[in-house]
Predict the structure.
Amino acid sequence: MASNYTALGVQLMTTGEKAGTWGTLTNTNWNIMEQISGGYIVQTLNAAGAGANTTTLSVNDGTAGATLAHRVIILGAVSAQAITGNKIVTIPLDVQTFYIIKNSTSGAYTVQFKYVTGSGNSVTWSSTEKGYKILYAAADDGTNPNIIDVGIGTMTSFTLAGTSGSSQTISDGNTATIAAGNGITTTAAATDTVTIAANPAMTPYISSTGKVLVMGF
């Protein structure tokens, strides 16, 4: 029986085949495994042109370098890639792994990560959401597999609470005015304005659901 490949491109060699080449092929397999376990890669999203379009990630059988066979994927560019339309990024139906993915784009457009076909769940960064997500590609249904946001990513809000128990939530990228009273002391006028920058760097944090952890990205 001829050798075959896993969903992420690792070659499964059949005993008795490819005599004299097992060393080279095994080294390539280990390189692919390193990518899968902790590799980092940047995937631009304008390969299909400007505007709204789809970037299809495909496996490289027996060859290192496939974007989908890396653990950490930066969508866009390290210093943010300008996009001019909503983007979709797809992976094959049989891929089952987890990813740490950053939406590193600029522009008021969404970025969606999904399986290439089917009606299973996908994950979308909103037009104002720029940051990391940890996703699990479940491949739990060959027809409608799911991409699952496991709930680990950049903190997007926090609460300032007064001693009386009242609180004011400041969302990521928004401005809130904090009134004096309820245990909150202002320093200048009757109110102070507090602005929270998009995706602020914050200390590790667990959400009320018990799933959110910020590692300082």
Remarks:
- The chain has two domains: 4-14+21-153, 157-195.
- The longest strand covers residues 72-82.
- The chain has one helix and 15 strands.
- The chain has a mean pLDDT of 79.
